[in-house]
Design a protein that fits this description.
alpha/beta; nine-stranded mixed β-sheet; five-stranded antiparallel β-sheet; 13 helices; globular
Length: about 475
């Protein structure tokens, strides 16, 4: 039986009111407490006239109030728009102008936005004045997602499916209703938001990290005996670089679900750490137009594979720039065709993607093998052209990030028609020759220039703004050091 997200949360509270729902640090919010909090926020939203079909935006660093706010929005039939807290004030304002939500919650002061604003505290005060119970309404749209982290151009993606689910069914691979999930990702990013909401609606205990720290993440998994965790390249890399101190402390995880692109060497390291059955992932873009599913077992059989399209859900075709289909093993544009019979999303602020025969291209390159398994190479817009052939920056970045001193790396086009590496080595400046030593790259893929920084080049979702760095490198010329 399917329930709205708000009704599912209420059901879990009725079943076991005292069971932990959200833990942040030493503060534990029971199911009953969270449900009551959601009711108050929903009443405040209703007092401001928010109702079915409306969009409400919110932002902020990880705290339990973000989850309560999301379910409060769903409870009145509205649609949440989580805006990544780390986006600039200009980007936030641009997203708000695109979507035009009816209300924003906890929007930072520097964001220029003429629309209505409120705070979580004000909503709770309004609820106390308004009184009355709030019924659960099935929102017509699940959420509004944001994108543009890799391109620098904000856009919004409206997920046009009702916000409802079966509270007793597994909502994601390996996620067991009633289990425990450690959430190291930002709630205002897509994966962190979606996975945390699914967990709460199916009775899971969400152990939320206010800020990601690799050692603390390992400790929380061990202490809370977590059985499920979502992770991105930055999370996996930081934990992997802890080395032997991790030991078997993550052994309780039934599934580590990978989000976004993860380098092959790092994926293999985590397969070795957890076992192939426990590492799973999907591919399909922010809009989730299709579902290509992969796991550690498939990867060991076919190293580098993204997965295979879900039967009856989607089909994958590879086409060249002219739109013609190419044979197996040939790299080209990845087109995904939905087979479910309905389009479940639409864009705001971006043109519709190129479509051929109902299949859509979301900007990625890759190839299919003879058995129909998909291999994703990189985004076409980020390919680096050299005289010796194209270079796919994701491969270069993954190799650089193997070095123990490198926290993150971005590879972009050099002004000299080669590869330029921007490398985040906090507190140190290694010689370029040291970074180049032992890289599993062909000669034309090796960086010819380096820029060193002391700041993460990827957000916690794994997104790196290569376009911005490409412009900066082109403007500055070839830089070594910095």
């Amino acid at each position: 039986m399917r329930f709205s997200y708000g009704a599912a949360l209420r059901l879990q509270a009725q079943r076991d009111p005292g069971r932990p729902a959200v833990t942040v640090g030493d503060v534990v919010h029971s199911r009953a407490h969270l449900d009551s909090w959601v009711d108050r926020l929903a009443a405040g939203l209703r007092a401001l006239g928010v109702g079915p079909g409306d969009i409400v935006a919110f932002t902020g660093r990880n705290h339990a109030g973000l989850l309560a706010c999301s379910f409060g929005i769903w409870r009145v039939g509205a649609t949440p728009l989580p805006i990544p807290w780390h986006r600039s004030a200009g980007d936030m304002a641009a997203l708000l102008r695109l979507v035009e939500p009816c209300l924003t919650v906890d929007l930072p002061g520097p964001v220029v936005w003429p629309g209505r604003r409120t705070t979580l505290g004000e909503l709770a005060a309004l609820a106390a004045a308004a009184g009355g119970a709030v019924g659960d309404v099935v929102p017509p749209r699940l959420r509004v997602g944001t994108s543009g982290g890799s391109t620098g151009t904000p856009k919004a993606i409206v997920i046009d499916v009702p916000a409802e689910l079966d509270p007793d069914a597994s909502p994601a691979p390996g996620m067991t209703p009633g289990g425990t999930q450690v959430m190291p990702l930002n709630l205002t990013d897509g994966a962190g938001f979606v996975m945390s909401a699914l967990a709460l609606a199916t009775g899971c205990h969400v152990v939320l990290m206010p800020r990601f720290d690799a050692r603390e993440c390992v400790r929380l998994v061990e202490t809370h005996r977590a059985d499920w965790m979502a992770a991105t390249q930055p999370v996996l890399l930081a934990i992997e670089k802890l080395g032997a101190e991790v030991g078997d402390r993550l052994a309780g995880l039934t599934v580590c679900h990978l989000q976004g692109g993860v380098g092959d060497w790092l994926k293999r390291a985590w397969i070795d750490r957890l076992g192939p059955d426990r590492l799973q992932w999907t591919y399909g873009g922010t809009d989730a137009r299709g579902s290509v599913i992969g796991d550690g077992n498939v990867w060991l059989e076919r190293p580098g594979v993204a997965g295979r399209p879900s039967p009856g859900v989607c089909e994958v075709e590879i086409r060249d720039a002219a739109g013609a289909r190419v044979p197996a093993g040939t790299r080209g544009r990845i087109y995904i065709r939905d087979l479910t019979g309905r389009r479940n999303f639409h864009y705001i602020g971006a043109p519709a993607p190129p479509t051929i025969g109902g299949a859509e291209w979301i900007g990625d390159l890759g190839y299919l093998d003879q058995d129909g398994y998909l291999y994703v190479v990189d985004r076409e817009a980020d390919v680096i052209e050299t005289g010796a052939g194209p270079v796919y920056p994701g491969f270069v970045e993954a190799e650089l990030e193997r070095h123990p001193l490198v926290r993150s790396a971005v590879a972009v086009q050099s002004p000299t028609a080669g590869v330029h590496a921007v490398v985040d080595c906090p507190g140190v400046r290694p010689e370029p020759s040291e970074l180049l030593r032992g890289l599993a790259l062909r000669p034309h893929e090796l960086p010819r220039g380096f820029t060193f920084v002391d700041e993460p080049l990827r957000d916690l979702a794994g997104k790196a703004n290569r376009r911005s760095w490409r412009r900066r490198v082109a403007a500055a010329g070839r830089i070594v050091g910095g």
